[in-house]
Design brief:
The chain is mainly α. Helix content is about 35%, strand content about 0%. The chain contains 3 helices and no strands. The two termini are about 25 Å apart.
């Protein structure tokens, strides 16, 4: 599922150049991060060799997604944490479209 999302829907660019209206992926089940890391590495966000260091003391690839990982936009971990992050991101996008602060659509 993560592969399909990154290939067909999210419009992320590993080169760091802004993609108009890129869609965030919120992985609320943080323990599933290895699948996310594999797709990010394959898409060029960081070298594939980094996957061999998953959860090592000196690695940036921890057991939950964190923003220190290229391509990760939000730190998640506890189940349900992604819900509040998604609501906040959605409210922020609504503000961008309407020019009003604090609106919830």
């Amino acid at each position: 599922m993560i592969r399909v999302l990154y290939d067909d829907f999210l419009r992320h660019n590993p080169a760091g150049a802004s993609v108009a209206r890129a869609r965030p992926l919120i992985l609320s089940k943080g323990h599933g991060c290895l699948a996310l890391y594999a797709v990010l590495a394959d898409r060029g966000f960081f070298p594939l060799e980094e996957l061999d260091r998953f959860c090592h003391f000196d690695s940036f690839l921890g057991g939950h997604p964190e923003t220190v990982v290229p391509g990760v936009e939000a730190c998640t971990g506890a189940l349900g944490h992604g819900l509040s992050i998604g609501i906040g991101m959605g409210a922020g996008r609504a503000d961008d479209r309407t020019g009003q602060q604090g609106s919830m659509c």
